[in-house]
Amino acid sequence: MGFLDSIMGGKKKLKGPAPDRLFAMSTAYVTLGTSHGIQTKGAAGIVFQPLATADFESIAAEMEEILHGTGADTGTTITTTDDEHGYRWMVLHDDDIEDLVVGVNAVSDALAVGGYGDRVLAAVFAFGDSKGRPVYFIYNYKRGFWYPFVPAGKLQRDGERELQIKAIIDGELPIEAELERWFPLWGTPI
Amino acid sequence: MAVTKTSFARDPGLQSRMILTLFLLGALYVAFAAVLIGAGVKGPVILLICGGLALLQLTTSDKLALHAMGAREVTPQEAPELHAMIERLCIQADLPKPKIAVAQTNMPNAFALGRSQKSATVCATTGIMNMLSPAELEGVMAHELAHVKNRDVMIMTIASFFASVAAMILQFGFLFGGGGHGDDDDGPGMFAIIIMSLVVYVVSFVLMMALSRYREFVADRGAALVTGRPSALASALRKISSGMDRLPQQDLRVANELSAFFIASPKKVVAGIFATHPPMEQRIEKLMQYERQLQTGTLAAA
Fold this sequence. Notes:
Chain A is α+β, with helices and mostly antiparallel strands. Chain A contains five helices and six strands. Chain A is globular, with a radius of gyration of 17 Å.
């Protein structure tokens, strides 16, 4: 953003969704599982701001119906919850991670087509390591990057483990380079 | 001068004090430069000294302001909801996470500080956190983050520095243009120089405040876009302003001091051109406009 642009308040404050690097997960999970024992828990969520507009509700309802329809083929099940911060989660369950990626992408696509692409906060994929500890991979739509999130107790995160995971998966998964943008998502419903 | 344009609520007491501080700070520059000129110091040296002072102000003002507000940085453990709310807004607005501070006061207010996006601090008072619903508070914090995103603190500091420089340039012109006819008349007296530069300063000060008001509208719009809930922010503004009217926060002694300084009551007359924030009704009206655009699908990021 140029100086003049910032003086004038700028024309464009919000970036649209970045180039789609969501699908990198449909191959990266192989490395995570075979070499590092980090396995999918068969769940992924997409979190977005529900808007109080008439067409938003109908788009959301339509989206859920479509997913229920395709879910009948792939075996993906879907639930919707609203969290305490006023954000809505669409949670997909499927043991096949590629189906999860496709399902999550269908949700964000439907929102984007409806003109609500800016409302999508993130997609979250739940994994667990060999010791059963949860490992989340969060995809930031605004920036088009992934980052790991390893909660360790109440509002604590295991920074060392997160950096380890970055080290082993960097290159296969486009990882957010700026660590200060590795925002946690506490209390995920997955 | 980091605080004025970023303080969220229109709080006449605090605001008048800040405007007075801002004004006196700037006037100090101008008078200081005038004295240096009068003492025969060379122009470049004066510019260097004043530039240095401005730089010092830019680097220390946020800490000073936090201290003045009695604010303290809070950890995610101390204020988990506030942290989680701001983290999500940062994702939406594509910002690095700022430092988060809380001031222990009943006055409902929030503000953003810091030169750059990376060194930013956002602060909320316990008063505003108690007064507003989560969605309303989210709107307020999104407004502050919009200030961070738009680099408003930096811009206003630069603008205020330019105002001082403008006054100084006038002083030079006055000296060289009017004082060149020998020593038999006394040339422009020191008093005349100071008066003249103060006039320039007052004009640029008013312009600066206008810029600040404009940037408030921009930040409101940014908050509406980031949260998708213009009405929540509008409702927050209404709560804050009505709360303000019912509970005067202005210390009686301060009110008297200010009335002595301003010719008319600071609240009524001075508010118009010197106010850093536009009237609450105008901001709410704009937000209602965004809500209508949102409902009809015409509120775009462009």
